[in-house]
Amino acid sequence: MGPLSPAERRMLFCFAAVLILWILGSSIGLDATITAFIGLSLLLLLEVIDWEDVKAEKSAWNTLIWFSVLIMMATQLNSLGFIPWFSQAVAGAVHGLAWPLVLLILVLVYFYSHYIFASATAHVSAMYGAFLGVALAAGVPAVPAALILGYVGSLMGSTTHYGAGPAPILFGSGYVPQNRWWAMNFLLSLVYLAIWLGVGLVYWHGIGTVLI
What we know:
mainly alpha; 0% strand
């Protein structure tokens, strides 16, 4: 392997700078978004890429615009009081039901409400505590309630093409149309829930991890 060219050295410098800023971001108060823009600015200033290269990445710009709007909308749903109202409405709807049915309803609502969220973090932050509280108040055992809602929070990210951070990037590649993405992941959601609420519960009970 021969020596690096000047362009390759500049690119390596930009990569190292962004990596360091990303690692130290939480310590120095630097947001990941600002780090990304610093990296882009360095690439432009050091002439690793030019503005025509930036404009040519239409899928990236499309992802950036739509994802930012969706995150803002999800944030506003919480700040305007929709999520607390929704949680209270669900609590009222399941009041008086047997706890296994309450748990099933809560998991289904928690999972499929992700269609209105553009971030798994925002969804879990807004609804996990509220739904867990409803489950415990309905008599659901604490361990299975906490674990199942926690696991479901990591399964719902692919439901939509904006449901988690990597989703818009994968969707932006253009290999899977939006209608096929939604249809396939709805079917996969049924598989996920069947495994975790069916086989999973039996397995946990068998090994004594979760006592129902």
